[in-house]
Design a protein that fits this description.
6 strands; alpha+beta; hypothetical protein PF0899 fold; 3-stranded antiparallel β-sheet; single chain; about 120 residues; about 30% strand; about 25% helix; 3-stranded mixed β-sheet
Length: about 120
């Protein structure tokens, strides 16, 4: 379950970037080819963030489908849930991955800080 170590890295990055400000949501873009299980990532986030300044925050995942571009006919094809790297146009296998390998924290949604009286 490598999602646990991924969440540890996300926590380190978010803690540095938030600089003590309360975090509500961590928006993450995850490509289909990254072999990350979204539900497991969300579950592991709850474990990693518990009893830290990130407790109560959540991860929001944008899934990015895997797509290839055929070098022969230039068609872009979704590879589907079981990745097959064959062109949907000509059937060729000389293809380049154009999306689906992403793993990126895209933004943080911060909670409003309580004003001191």
């Amino acid at each position: 379950m490598h999602e646990l170590s991924i969440c540890g890295s996300i926590a380190d990055i978010v803690t540095r970037r938030a600089a003590g400000r309360p975090v509500k949501v961590i928006n993450v873009r995850v490509g289909q080819l990254r072999q990350v299980v979204p539900d497991t990532l969300v579950y592991c986030w709850e474990l990693v963030s518990a009893d830290t300044q990130l407790a109560g925050s959540r991860i929001s995942i944008e899934a990015v489908p895997a797509r290839i571009r055929c070098r022969s006919c230039d068609q872009v094809t979704d590879v589907g849930p079981i990745p097959v790297f064959a062109c949907g146009g000509c059937g060729g296998f000389d293809a380049q991955v154009v999306s689906g390998e992403e793993f990126l924290i895209t933004s943080l949604e911060l909670a409003a800080e309580e004003a001191s009286n």
